[in-house]
Amino acid sequence: MARSALSRDEVLDTAAALVREHGPAALTMRRLAAELGTAVTSIYWHVGNRESLLDALVSRTVTDLGTIRPRGTTPTERIVSVARSLRRALRERPHLVAMVHERGLTERMFLPAQRALAHEAHAAGLRGAHAARAVRALQFQVVGYVLVERNRERAPAQSPAEEELWREEAAGSDAELARALAAPIDTEALFVDSVRALVDGLLAGASGDTGDGAVGRGPYSL
């Protein structure tokens, strides 16, 4: 029996969950209706056709990434917190982020995070092109890191694996290095280390060179 009450938000929540787990191709109106225990006509009433539903999911994804807020007491802590939040948001929504990119809204999606980073760059004493380079460098660091993570996760099993290769080097001149590289990767800790190192380098020139204004272009689809 079809359910009697349904909200637009519930439809979008369920649709987003389907896309996150199975990709956009799995999102059909019939499957969505089955997940919600309602009639297909009810889905159309709340969100329109499938293209309208996809547009609504894209709009919601853009809005969600606008909720990132810095945390911490120093510019470095706050910048790292933005980077961590952005990485987590991208990791949780790969298919949705790809849909945003396909609709030409990537720059709009990243704008709130850029604004937050720019604010913290100003708080740290960076201005003009130097601040712009810092924002772009951090943005590329986050997106590039997520791309590498996803590629590693989707890669076929390697034989021998990295751990096995470095285990063979454990008797060399730097056994501690070999053991560390043979150990599983703590991707969160590695990410924080890399962002902190980048931030330290960027903020070290806060009162110095303002650069030539050369900045990169935005990131691409995950």
From TrEMBL:
Q: Which GO terms describe its molecular function?
A: DNA-binding transcription factor activity; transcription cis-regulatory region binding
Supply the alphabetized keyword list: DNA-binding, Repressor, Transcription, Transcription regulation
Listed GO biological process terms: negative regulation of DNA-templated transcription; response to antibiotic
Give the DNA-binding residues.
Answer: 28-47
Domain HTH tetR-type: from-to ranges: 5-65
Quote the InterPro entries the UniProt record gives.
Homeodomain-like_sf (IPR009057), HTH-type_TetR-like_transc_reg (IPR050109), HTH_TetR (IPR001647), Repressor_TetR_C (IPR004111), Tet_transcr_reg_TetR (IPR003012), Tet_transcr_reg_TetR-rel_C_sf (IPR036271)
* One Pfam family per UniProt: TetR_N
Which PANTHER family does UniProt cross-reference here? Answer: HTH-TYPE TRANSCRIPTIONAL REGULATOR RUTR, TRANSCRIPTIONAL REGULATORY PROTEIN
Q: What is this protein called?
A: Putative transcriptional regulator, TetR family protein
In the record, what lineage is assigned to the organism producing the protein? Bacteria, Bacillati, Actinomycetota, Actinomycetes, Kitasatosporales
